[in-house]
Amino acid sequence: MTELVIAVNPQPDSRLRYLLRVPQPGGDLLFRTSDTWPRTKALYCHPMHIDEWPADPEIVERLPLQSCVRRGAAIDVILTRGRENRSQIVFTTTRGRKTVFWQSPRTRKQARPNVRTPTARAQGIERLQILVDTHERYAYSFKTQQVELVKQALPCGDYAVAVDGSLVASVERKSLSDLTSSLTSGKLRYQVGHLASLPRAAVVVEDRYSQLFRNAFIRPAVAADSLAELQIRWPTVPIVFCETRQLAEEWTYRFLAAAHAWAVTEEAALQRIAQVPVAAPATDSGPSTATVRAWARQAGFDVPDRGRLRPEIWQAWRAANED
Known about the structure:
Blueprint (H helix, E strand, L loop, with lengths): L2 E6 L9 E5 L6 E5 L9 E6 L10 E13 L2 E6 L6 E9 L2 E7 L1 H6 L17 E5 L14 E5 L7 E5 L2 E9 L1 H10 L1 H9 L4 E6 L14 H14 L5 E3 L3 H21 L1 H7 L15 H10 L12 H10 L3
Parallel strand pairs: 9-10, 12-13, 13-14
Antiparallel strand pairs: 1-2, 1-5, 2-3, 3-4, 4-8, 5-6, 6-7, 7-8, 9-11, 11-12
Helix pairs in contact: 3-8, 5-6, 7-8
């Protein structure tokens, strides 16, 4: 069976950490690239000679191919798996230089939103401190904005701002695949319920609402009904579709800055915020860890077999059993 092979780049100082070997009738092609699949952005591929393939490679993945055909300036790659199975290796020219990119249908649609995000400070805040949850993978960097990032465990959401040690607002980030999986598992219901306990909160989606109806892993009517139900049940937590990751990052920055400005200028807001600590609350003398662990697995949470449970797991259990 023909395979797409991904191995570790033996050069440890290279930013392109992987080797991508693409089978072709006239001889395999070899590239250095930065990831194992173009999930959130198109990946730059640096061409290499096939003789540079290591004698004893450290294989990361062997992906069986259904098809790998070159058509003009692109190689169409189709894997024999249900998800993330289609991509293209595109040969193009950038600023007069020949370049190669590896892209998926999703990254191709999101690559150019045709807008330039503003760089002006939100709400006139000179440097906004944004808290980033320690479990957040591939976190926003806010490189174009005046932001100080602080990593710490958050009781809910992925990004937050605080005033005098108490949470002002939090934003839960979702890719389209994460949104659909959390809808089907019921996990999103608990997350939105936790966010609703904060003075201000939102869910931001890195895609268009229309893409929800093109997903093959959830019925469009079920997805739309579930989102509508969440908005009716918790109207204070908007679910915002921002088309691309870049625009979702910009929206998150503006939302948190506006919440911070609102909190420091309104007396009623400060009184409400005073009861919401930044750190997740310690567990009480209620259910045992084993009981909550079993409940979390049935609810669709990813929990370890041993050790302490994450704060959001305890809060999810309390929200589900508060009656």
